[in-house]
Design brief:
14 strands
């Protein structure tokens, strides 16, 4: 497949593959969650911090409501293809083990890219919603503790009457190709990472800023590069803590302008195809993003000639 051949749709980012039935019309029933918790046919995805229980085969392990210990925040996620309701029961990382018996657990970062489309979709939905339920119990206007309603998808302040909803913060992430040497890809190394770990350039969209302007600004700030030929690739939720990662490919106007900002990005480097291929295969010194990240999809696109 070439970059101009659109007969085969591009591979979706790893956490954007699922077309879930969120059954949002059911959320308005204030008794929905309690009724489903009393139904043994309901399936529950338990979260402990950012981890979920796994089966021996590495799939998500859904349990019955009766298997979940007390102390969770509950919410309705939607319906399985067979019509079964799906809830999430969310526990803080500091909470005690929320399921009795031995279970393997995996974080979204670690296992998200290896899950089925359905499992990945439920995991990213549950973690995105669950973090908001745990982290935002008080009204940001008056400080009163809010009341969860809409089956876990909204909070109402009993004092000032305001309603609050889960936040999603858009962020751009960009893979930069050389204009002079199309077989070179520019990546950066963050100051918080260890040696030899590189990824695409990324940052949050600022107030009043378009996605395209954010791409140009972030790449310029972090790498000194002016970009041309910016192409949208895809997006996926990334609940660390509440981002929507919007992926792009772009081309450098001048390769020689590449220079790390020295603050957030401590090194920028042009990599050739052999180095990238070895990094993706785990056979070289280069450490690249994990399989659940959209950054890895952008890098793979470039290597496969689909950027």
């Amino acid at each position: 497949m070439t970059a101009d051949d659109h007969s085969v749709p591009p591979i979706a980012p790893p956490l954007a593959r699922a077309d879930l039935d969120r059954s949002a019309h059911e959320r308005a029933d204030d008794a929905l969650v309690e009724r489903l918790r009393a139904d043994a046919a309901t399936r529950v995805l338990v979260l402990h911090g950012d981890s979920a229980p796994l089966t021996e085969a590495g799939a998500l392990r859904f349990v019955t409501p009766a298997e979940v210990t007390d102390g969770a925040e509950w919410a309705f996620l939607g319906r399985m293809p067979d019509g079964a309701a799906v809830l999430t029961a969310v526990f803080a990382r500091e909470a005690e083990q929320p399921l009795p018996g031995p279970h393997a657990w995996g974080s979204l970062r670690t296992v998200g890219g290896e899950l089925s489309a359905q499992d990945a979709g439920f995991f990213v939905e549950a973690l995105s919603l669950g973090r908001w339920l745990l982290d935002s119990p008080f009204c940001p206007f008056c400080g009163t503790r809010t009341i969860v309603h809409n089956s876990g998808w909204a909070r109402r302040c009993p004092h000032c009457g305001r309603e609050h909803f889960p936040r999603t913060d858009p962020a751009v992430i960009v893979a930069i190709t050389s204009a002079q040497h199309p077989d070179r890809l520019l990546l950066g190394s963050n100051a918080l990472w260890g040696a030899n770990r590189f990824s695409c350039f990324a940052g949050f969209v600022e107030a009043g800023e378009s996605l395209e302007s954010a791409v140009a600004r972030e790449v310029r700030e972090e790498s000194g590069i002016e970009v041309v030929n910016v192409r949208y690739r895809g997006s996926q939720g990334w609940p660390y803590p509440r981002s929507l990662m919007v992926g792009f490919h772009a081309t450098a106007a001048d390769d020689d302008a590449a220079l790390a900002d020295g603050d957030e990005i401590v090194e920028v480097r042009w990599f050739d195809r052999d180095e990238i291929a070895a990094g993706l295969a785990g056979t070289g010194d280069l450490l690249l993003p994990g399989p659940a990240s959209i950054a890895r999809r952008l890098i793979s696109d470039w290597l496969e000639g689909a950027a």
